[in-house]
Write a structure and sequence with these properties.
It contains 3 helices and no strands. The chain is mainly α. The protein has a domain of about 55 residues. The longest helix has 17 residues. The termini are far apart.
């Protein structure tokens, strides 16, 4: 895919611009036999939110950040206490 995704909304990309670019990418991937590797916008948001060190990168609300963060996080187990 030559060039980048160009929008005319002062740094903000319209959803239609993104959709058009993703459709072009999907066609190109199909021509190379890679159509099984295509990802949706939902999966892309999830990947970005999960991999970002700065969880505020997406500008989503806290509940949506938790929804899109699909990484397994390490949790320390509770301590065992005896009640005898």
């Amino acid at each position: 895919m030559e060039g980048g995704i160009i929008g005319d909304t002062a740094g903000k990309m319209l959803k239609s611009t993104f959709d058009d670019a993703m459709q072009k990418l999907k066609k190109m991937m199909s021509s190379y036999g890679l159509s099984d590797n295509y990802w949706s916008l939902h999966k892309l948001k999830s990947k970005v939110q999960s991999d970002a060190k700065n969880k505020d990168i997406s500008g989503l609300s806290k509940p949506m950040k938790r929804h899109y963060d699909t990484k397994l996080h390490r949790v320390d187990p509770a301590r065992w206490q005896s009640f005898s």
